[in-house]
Amino acid sequence: MDCLFCKLVAKEIPATILFEDEDVIAFEDIMPQAPVHFLVIPKKHISTLNDIKEEDAAIIGKLPIVASKIAKEKKVDQSGYRVVMNCNEDGGQTVYHIHMHVLAGKQMTWPPG
Length: 113
What we know:
Blueprint: H1 4-9, E1 17-20, E2 24-28, E3 36-42, H2 57-73, E4 81-84, E5 100-104
Antiparallel strand pairs: 1-2, 2-3, 3-5, 4-5
């Protein structure tokens, strides 16, 4: 298994876990780009957004639910946060296991870099 996030799910590498259930795991980003920066991923390996199948809909639907729950716990739900999912090289994806970035704790600018 070469996937970094699959290794994290298997507890082969450490992470600061914020949430975990049978389908989803959320953890602090190791290179935060904002004062609050965590990732929410499905435990099932899905390489890119292009690889999501209809049978994955329930699991994928849990990602924003978990993101908002953690945002509330971190007290950034009212001030606001940004949710980003990158797809492939031009989209900025570096780990090929889909993941939702949640960034908060500062004013976000638009357009992003």
